[in-house]
Amino acid sequence: MFKIVEKRKIAENIYEMKIAAERVAKAALPGQFVIVRADEGGERVPLTIADYDVERGTVTIVTQTIGHSTKKICALEVGDSLADFAGPLGRPSEFVHMAEEELKKRKYIFVAGGVGTAPVYPQVKWLKQHGVDCDVIIGAKTKDMLIYIDEMRKVGNVHIATDDGSEGYKGMVTGLMKELVETEGREYDECVCIGPMIMMKFVCLTTKPWSLLTTVSLNALMVDGTGMCGACRVTVGGKTLFTCVDGPEFNGHEVDFDEAMRRQAMYKNQEKFDNDNREHKCNCYGK
Amino acid sequence: MANKIPRVAVREQDPVVRATNFEEVCYGYNAEEAALEASRCLNCKNPRCVAACPVNIRIPEFIHHITEGDMRAAADTIHFDSSLPSICGRVCPQESQCEGSCVLGIKGEAVAIGKLERYVGDWALEHSAEVEATPTIIPNGKRVAVVGSGPAGLACASDLAKMGYQVDVFEALHRLGGVLSYGIPEFRLPKERVVAREINEVKRLGVRFETDVIIGRTMTIDSLLDKEGYEAVFVGSGAGLPRFMGIEGENLNGVLSANEFLTRVNLMGAWDPKHSDTPVYVGRKVVVVGGGNVAMDAVRTAKRLGAEAVIVYRRGEAELPARKEEVHHAKEEGIEFRMLTNPTRILGSEDGWVTGINCVEMELGEPDASGRRSPQEKVGSDFTIDCDVVIMALGTSPNPLIASTTSGLNINRRGCIEADEMGTTSRAGIFAGGDAVTGAATVILAMGAGRKAAKAIDEYIRSK
Prior knowledge:
The complex is a heterodimer of chains A (287) and B (464).
Chain A: E1 2-11, E2 14-20, H1 22-27, E3 33-37, E4 45-53, E5 58-64, H2 68-75, E6 81-82, E7 84-89, H3 100-104, E8 108-113, H4 117-129, E9 135-140, H5 149-155, E10 157-162, E11 169-170, H6 173-183, E12 190-194, H7 197-207, E13 214-217, E14 233-236, E15 239-242, H8 243-246, E16 249-251, H9 257-264
Parallel strand pairs in A: 8-9, 8-12, 9-10, 10-11, 12-13
Antiparallel strand pairs in A: 1-2, 1-6, 2-5, 3-4, 3-7, 4-5, 13-16, 14-15
Helix pairs in contact in A: 4-5, 6-7, 7-9
Chain B: H1 15-18, H2 31-38, H3 48-52, H4 59-67, H5 71-81, H6 85-91, H7 98-101, H8 104-107, H9 113-126, E1 143-147, H10 151-162, E2 166-170, H11 179-182, H12 191-204, E3 208-210, H13 221-226, E4 232-235, E5 241-242, E6 255-257, H14 258-267, E7 285-289, H15 293-304, E8 308-312, H16 324-332, E9 336-338, E10 341-348, E11 354-367, E12 373-377, E13 383-386, E14 389-392, E15 396-397, H17 401-405, E16 430-432, H18 435-438, H19 443-462
Parallel strand pairs in B: 1-2, 1-4, 2-3, 4-16, 6-14, 7-8, 7-14, 8-9
Antiparallel strand pairs in B: 5-15, 10-11, 11-12, 11-13
Helix pairs in contact in B: 2-4, 2-9, 4-5, 5-9, 6-9, 10-19, 14-15
């Protein structure tokens, strides 16, 4: 059992929790994920790590209530425990293996969408700690749905985009990217994009003509998360790979997003949806 | 010779009924049946069955105890060589091991050694509270880590615990048992009544278990040896990585590995939606590709979930690698077998869901390297089987995670950890056994490997 030591609501239907998981905290690196099970009978839900604190022995997860299982997780309070919290899983981000000298020369732009902002944070933070300042675009539908703004401002140069213009740039993250790259002439060696599949697809379409290496973090369906089931199969560069062990980060220009989105909806009709969650209308889980 | 008595038939659930539920297929012997069957054993001077058993259980001896009604002695005899009799009695391929060598089998029917082992194992579980679990164990203060709580790890941990070691078993999943929990279905191996209780017996020896620890990620083997104070590590991490065919349409919605299908149903409990949030989809018709035990488990599970279920296998019936009993049970339950049939392409709808599978007919040619006659395509024999789900049961290979995160641990071309007969690997202090070394094999071979490694670990630590 893994105790919830902190919990706060950071936007409508989005909760941040700090979980006591000493070993996971000690081993975690940016880019990795955990498998969470709320209770006996619960699904194994993959969640990307939003932060980790080796000294306190805690790992932070950010969950949006989308279906039955995420709602179950978010219903737990401080002092309650998750039945399971296994990880860190997947490969860490490429840059953690780079030599410091090489790394310092690199320019990164991060593009975060919705709840995907949370897993961007440990990456930007890690780079900051290693002497790399990054540009970070955070996008959301509206101002109230923006998360991790204050945290991110401490570690990166934040640019905000909202669909309705209630804060920052009015429009999609891709529009803001074009502004930075095409209008302002900023140059980058790598773009890292984490968010809904559909957003990652369009970010990749945007960066392709610039020949800008674009890394995406896929949130495929998984059962075990350790390479056993193959539910998370994804086509990358014409080859079938497993998101859980070969990823979750891939070269976005090689990912077959249409297939990935279709596969993500595989159990859509079987999943237990609660009526009050049907109001969640972003397209990240649809096709 | 005392053999006018025919082999005592075992009672089974009616095939029509059981094809709709997940209750155990085989009921096993009761006391009278077991005693009668035990009386058929000739108690051979040179028992061939013992030599044919991968862990050399003293078979005639335990059977003799049954005839005397001394169940405690029968259980002790088996436990001396095997820690999981209730499991092995159910899932061992006895027909090619102990029973396959039984003298009675030459002219008639072999003694039902497997069913008798199961009977004794179940009796021991029922009566385990009557005996002290750790009467002779003197702790030696040394610690050994075991990676994986499947058959290899359980056997290794039990033996080491009996020798006085403090054993900690690390399991990646949330439930113990490895393939016994995620792979083999409830109707063949009940999880609570058998697997959990056998593991409980291992716990009673003082073995500690920790779930949710992925060795290679949460902790590495190097850290277990260098920082966590373990004298040695046994790797029994199994062969969990599913293979696919590499044919067109394999990533369509509705194509899944047998591992995924069985994990959803067994480990996650999707067969019982009242108590499980994990979904499973079978549609109206399921095609399972493959002919091994896992293929049989998958196809029989699909049938129980309400689908029409078909096996497609590229060789002939005689070449099916599955146990005869499993094939027989599957047929009784109404599973269709399409032999000498090989898939070439999976067909899908416009929105990406499986609609059918294209196959060709095969004929058998000359025996290949494995000794099985290799199938060849019949030209122009293409045809389509309409279906909603395709399950690939083509075998598994070891997960590369441990080898890739452990310095100096060699693997072979097939991704298996290199280890000798005793489980000794390329690195001192690290031992390995079971499917992680051999590739997918049987429960009993994994158990045997775990036991041998326990001996080797003991010798290694003593000689340090």
